[in-house]
Prior knowledge:
Blueprint: E1 7-10, H1 14-24, E2 30-34, E3 57-60, H2 67-77, H3 81-88, E4 90-91, E5 96-99, H4 101-114, E6 118-122, E7 136-138, H5 146-156, E8 161-167, E9 170-172, E10 182-183, E11 199-204, H6 206-217, H7 240-244, E12 273-279, E13 286-289, H8 298-305, E14 316-318, E15 321-327, H9 330-333, E16 339-340, E17 343-348, H10 358-381, H11 394-405, H12 445-470
Parallel strand pairs: 1-2, 1-7, 2-6, 7-17
Antiparallel strand pairs: 3-5, 4-5, 8-15, 9-13, 9-14, 10-11, 11-12, 12-13, 16-17
Amino acid sequence: MTREHPVHIVGxxxxxxxxxxxxxSRGVPVVLHEMRPAQRTAxxxxxxxxxxxxxNSFRSDDCATNAVGLLHEEMRRLGSLIMRAADANQVPAGGxxxxxxxxxxxxxxxxxxxxPLVTIARGEVAGLPPEDWANVIIATGPxxxxxxxxxxxxxxxxxxLAFFDAIAPIVHRDSIxxxxxxxxxxxxxxGPGGSGAxxxxxxxxxxxxxxxxxxxxxxxxxxxxxxxLSTPYFDGCLPVEVMAKRGPETLRHxxxxxxxxxxxxxxxxxxxxxxxxRQDNKxxxxxxxxxxxxxxxxxxxxxxxxxxxxxxHAEFARLGGLHRNTYLNSPRVLDSALRLKAMPRLRFAGQIxxxxxxxxxxxxxxxxxxxxxxxxxxxxxxGDTASPPPATTAIGALLAHITGGHIETIDAGPRxxxxxxxxxxxxxxxxxxxxxxxxxxxxxxxxxTVAKKRALSARALADLDRWIGASPVIAAA
Length: 477
């Protein structure tokens, strides 16, 4: 470690780990503070950095027509440690990028432990960081400790917003009855590391589906504390039993939709609903139930999930769970460089800023790390601070949403800011939307939508490359 004052990062999740890598890669020393194992959380199971506590999927890797796939590619071009580790430890998942969660965490941990400018400090940072920490990134994620949450809330003058996030169960592969279930990706899609037959599919007929929904509706769930009763869920990660309460057909149009799949055992019979399981580790010994986050009690989970055809004798490596997530009203309390307006030495990254998803959290960590490093380099060399990425890029659009992209209406009021996954709706509109294909034929319907997404992605990558070239210090790999 050099004598130069380091940048301090509080939190060793995806955002904090990515921020640390970006800072150290620019020649600036960094101390990464992670409270585990001295202080445990309700969701983590290991002491590793960048532990994945929910799904093992980074979602679509299609950079041409999918916003999260585009974000993958942008992060790769920006030297992301998280994407490097994900690519090196992927498991088959159709069109998605999914990882062996243990190997992924081990890779991130090893990279940071071996970097000469990174110091990993184990122990909780309770309350506000010490005053002599002049450059701090708080990346404590959705499980920020109560002491730090209260200190941030008191300082910012804004109450933190909160929602509940649920975890899906994981099943041992050899306990699944493959005489009933079969391997197939939806529409036989081949993705990174995949074959087109990457998911285990369990079919339900109409009667089985109705009985399953009824069981979910009557299941015993974990109890909430009184202070938690008004806390909303994030719509992108609803517990399966909460989805079931929205209507008897909701699950058939969500995680149990039967489209794009053909039962290998009964190819002429169309399933009324299908439950999919996705590979969770490289050995292919564990599979998680896709979209089945749950707050059911453990005994209820075992009882109800074993009514699924093919899972009658399922053995569970992990049952689902529930934890409370906390995030800031970021557009009100953070500036465009992710700094707390009330105390600019504190910068925030990851889910606590109001982004949602593994990739989005890491992307905001990447930006926060680059901003913190450039701020330190500017102080050292009397140079300029970094310009933000263009809002036409996925990473720039995400930053714009967090720091002011939401709309406050009279009805919704000042608390309308909600967590957001990256999506093309956050991007500035195209100057000219494609109307014809390469053969000169007029585009209509889905083809027009795909062409628009391709144009948005092409613009994003071109603008990102120009930004990288115009910002040699902040963009250096």
